[in-house]
Design brief:
Belongs to the acyl-CoA dehydrogenase family. Residues 218-365 form the Acyl-CoA dehydrogenase/oxidase C-terminal domain. GO terms for molecular function: acyl-CoA dehydrogenase activity; flavin adenine dinucleotide binding. It is a single chain. By secondary structure, the chain is an alpha+beta fold. It contains eleven helices and nine strands. Helices cover 53% and strands 16% of the residues. Helix 4 packs across helix 7 (219-255). The two termini are 25 Å apart.
Amino acid sequence: MDFTYSEEQQMLTDSLRRFVSTEYTFDTRRRNAREHGSFDPHIWSALSEMGVAGLSVPAEHGGFGEGPATQAVVQRELGRALVQEPVIPGGVIAPAILRGFAPPEMQAACLPAVASGETIFAIAYLEPGTRYRAEAARAQARREASGAYVLSGAKSAVWHGAAAHAYIVSAWLDGALALFVVQRDAPGLTVAGYPTIDRLAGADLTLADTPATLLTVQGLEALELGLDHGIAAQCAAAAGAMERLIEITAEYLDTRRQFGKPLASFQALQHRVAEMVMQKELALSMAYVAAQGLDAADVAERRRKVSAAKVVTARAARFVGQQAVQLHGGMGMTDELEVGDYFKALAMADVLLGDSDLHLERYTAAMAA
């Protein structure tokens, strides 16, 4: 897999950087989180027009049919700006599940709307007490005499759930974990949204005999594939966030003076910034490893590479975030600077889509296999 930017990838990167520098400023992002639940339809529409939502959607369904390498390029750029829109759940995880497991008629109905940004999917697989384990779900599906399916149960911590138009929901059906599509306006569905510490948003779902459409009875396999695509994208976004945070920190050290000299002139602080850069480069390399793993024919190889990238990136993200706060001194603890936003986003790199404990266990099992 070649990670050298192609001409098309470079053009897309340049377009995204220009867009976020003018339309997605620090104040805009804060206002978006405060007033719009971290989702702005105008921003989402603009990103969709640039191809972000349909990047992984096959060309026959209105997308661009790009692979993991291009997705890593885009997510790295979006991570630099801490873009809050539901790009990973709606533009990465959902398309991976739909194109890999949904029947042709469902793909034809859903994927064009995903590519255009008209429909945003969220993934509802976590439940209270399940600790990231999809197989521990308790939601139940029932097929009625008419042939229609209804779901009952509760889902928690649905990433960008409040902004979604539809949900991919896991539930047990005849002894197997299956995935279903539930529309936002379906009877019996209650959505309770809330902000998260990183200025994003989550939601809890309650399903009471809620009508649903069967996506696949291979629920565990489909979820694992979709979440692996999401983790690879998340790692690239975290590497981009670290990259930008290091730039912000270096700029601060260049301007802040102590003993008549800029802080950047002190060798001890230079060493700490160098360590931050090394951790960022390590995370970026592992993001490429995760992207490469998505194309592996062997499932165990994919699991090893994705879980290893998740663990290494989470550790690097915590280190870079903590160092940036400390190097900003007292100002790093205030809400006045961007550094706090980046620190919170990087702290969430560990807990989103499975924490390090889960992925270390998964990596070990894949190695044993």
